[in-house]
Amino acid sequence: MEVLFKVIRQTENSSPVVQTYRLEAEPGNTILDCLNQIKWEQDGTLAYRKNCRNTICGSCAMRINGRSALACKENLRSEIARLENIPASGSKASSIPEMTIAPLGNMPVIKDLVVDMSSFWDNLEAVAPYVSTAGRQVPEKEFLQTPQERSLLDQTGNCIMCGACYSECNAREVNSDFVGPHALAKAYRMVADSRDDDTENRLENYNEDTKGVWGCTRCFYCNSVCPMDVEPLEQITKIKQEILQHKQVADSRSIRHRKVLVDLVKEGGWIDERKFGLHVVGNYFKDLTGLLSIVPLGMRMIAKGKFPLSFESSEGTQQVRSLIEAVQQEEGSRE
Ligand code: SF4
Ligand code: SF4
Ligand code: FES
């Protein structure tokens, strides 16, 4: 079959340009196979990362037809089928299928599809991604774990550090302090590890302002693009639960975060994002320093078109409210 590859090309000092390549390929060819074909047969100057060709090393993440994914995992057949399900993609009307390939987001481009991942690695380092046994008697042989203890590490242990989640993270786009979904998924792996003896310090660290778990806007993108089903958002939620259970590190803002979330959903059926930060960080307009601290973030969100200017209650508000009230009543009767 014939296919068109529209590759967004760029160097550090130039504006992006779209370069189109036409090639003959099989439907089962991966996007990486096609890029290799372009590089080896048509244009040796095209730059991209690759290594294992088998969804192991995480090198070949890039934006494929609008979302971050591994080039060695996705193939032409699956991409064409995906595009056909997107009404505005126009791929049905076109006689030759088109693949649009762009570099990962939230990181500066070095050349073509190669991005500078320094911030990605620095943010991983910021969560201390190593099992700490400093304050513990180290056994002579090995640390034993039960199968149950080990199974808690399976999902997060699957992360191949590809950067797809980081590329799509809405919080990262507006808040350069936020460490990102990959780092927090790794952070939960440390919290869950029975060999680690630094949980209290970790939870304090991950609880910090909008740098840690509270910086996540729960947009779900990291879960939807992760090629290894690590589900970073689920891991972030588990860290929040741990923080809230450890009363000594659960400052009032963390507790307010959960309370405001429930109150707003009860009020409008879903979250009124305009009020969320004002109530959580600004403590219902009582904390002037907190309010001032989120002004720059608010301005960046408005500039990026990520701040909703109006709010409409959900049609199911009454139903949602009844459900929350029923749960609250049940909880109250148990206390
Ligand atoms: S859910 Fe949170 S961590 Fe995941 S992409 Fe959205 S903002 Fe980022
Ligand atoms: S969590 Fe998933 S998307 Fe994010 S770096 Fe790890 S494997 Fe990639
Ligand atoms: S080349 Fe290793 S994950 Fe794609």
Automatic annotation (TrEMBL):
PROSITE patterns associated with the record: 2FE2S_FER_2, 4FE4S_FER_1
Annotated InterPro entries: 2Fe-2S_ferredoxin-like_sf, 2Fe-2S_ferredoxin-type, 4Fe4S_Fe-S-bd, 4Fe4S_Fe_S_CS, Beta-grasp_dom_sf, Helical_ferredxn, SDH/FRD_Iron-Sulfur, Succ_DH/fum_Rdtase_Fe-S
Record keywords, A-Z: 2Fe-2S, 3Fe-4S, 4Fe-4S, Iron, Iron-sulfur, Metal-binding, Oxidoreductase, Tricarboxylic acid cycle
Entry EC no(s): 1.3.5.1
GO terms of biological process kind: respiratory electron transport chain; tricarboxylic acid cycle
SUPFAM superfamilies the record matches: 2Fe-2S ferredoxin-like (SSF54292), alpha-helical ferredoxin (SSF46548)
2Fe-2S ferredoxin-type domain boundaries: 5-89
Pathway: Carbohydrate metabolism; tricarboxylic acid cycle
Presence of keyword Iron-sulfur: yes
MF GO annotations: 2 iron, 2 sulfur cluster binding; 3 iron, 4 sulfur cluster binding; 4 iron, 4 sulfur cluster binding; electron transfer activity; metal ion binding; succinate dehydrogenase (quinone) activity
Cofactor: [4Fe-4S] cluster; [2Fe-2S] cluster; [3Fe-4S] cluster
Similarity remark: Belongs to the succinate dehydrogenase/fumarate reductase iron-sulfur protein family.
Name of the protein in its database record: succinate dehydrogenase
